[in-house]
Amino acid sequence: MKNFIAQFSRLFVGILFIISGLIKLNDPLGFSYKLEEYFSEPVFNMPLFVPYSLALALFLVILEVVLGVMLLIGYKSKLTIWSLLLLVVLFTFLTFYSAYFDVVKDCGCFGDALHLTPWQSFSKDLILLFFILILLYNQKYIKPLFSNTIQNILVLISIALCAFMGYWVLNHLPLKDFRPYKVGTNLKTAMEIPDNAPKSVVEMIFIYNVNGVEKEFTEKDLMSLPAGAKFVDRKDKVIVQGYQPPIHDFKLELDGNDNTQLIFSKEKSLLIVAYDLEKANTEALQKLNKLYKDASAKGYYVAIVTGSSTDVIAGVKKKYGFPFDFLFCDATALKTIERANPSFVVLHYGTIMQKLHYNDIDDLNL
User: Fold this and answer.
1) pLDDT tens digits, residue range 73-92?
2) What is the pTM of this model?
3) At what angle do helices 148-171 and 2-25 cross, to 10 degrees?
4) Which fold has domain 248-363?
5) In the β-sheet with 269-274, what is the strand arrangement from edge to edge?
6) What is the pLDDT of residues 267-284, one digit of tens each?
């Protein structure tokens, strides 16, 4: 019976780690953005680690997959199980912190393929911890499936394949796009809210300074505020989350005017997405004037979509002599649309027809 439970735990933990790791390895930049949230001020306030978020993301997701493989084949079981235990304890701490303090809404455990609430993520990690503890106390049942030579080769192959996959998706696109902006999506339709959709229930929280201490009060408390209380701020607390369309933060502005619907009305559009022009690939930027000329000749409306400031936009326009429009959009939304900076999105009446990394500019179908 103990052997059966140990082998079930081995399969469950190993397969789950491989699946979770591969999903995040499919989009390591997305996972690195999630790590940046943890390193940011509202959470751990560790800005020193922000520049290393991508490297850490790659290390963690490759480690997840490789440890899963090592467990399934029984490679160095003691080292493997203890490594899994340390990793899941780290994840459990992060998900509990996120859930309890309500700071990170989605841990990114399964990337964009499956969104879990913080408490769901914490529960998932507790289940994993339970099965890993079973493995820890039943290590004698975790035997290697192959000879040492074959085991070593399999582990090295898994590391090499993961490293290659990480390199490929960073220099091209995720192999599978789980985001709401995937090819075939009509942006206008994806932004619509049905008439019968459930509405959010929001409670207003008022913050007052009372004798030098900031305290929170509900709307009902306002009639009985302490003497001398001074208003500081107001925030909205979501009690019940209503329906949110798949795309809810996409808005294109030109000179302060909303141009979103205008883009949707155009038969052919080529949007050059660069969430941060200062960090955009310079070689790709140098190719944009030729791209604009070729695309315009075929009837395309061409524009750069960016979250950069007006000063940065003016500097880039002057440096490269770009003749096309610069549309402003929230940088977080642009990071969700595509990971490359810049990347290319071809639209047909608001429907995404093609998305490409700047390394694949020659593959644009115009």
Assistant:
1) 988 889 999 999 898 888 88
2) 0.82
3) 30
4) Glutaredoxin (3.40.30)
5) 257-258, 253-254, 325-328, 301-306, 269-274, 343-348, 351-357
6) 999 999 999 999 999 999
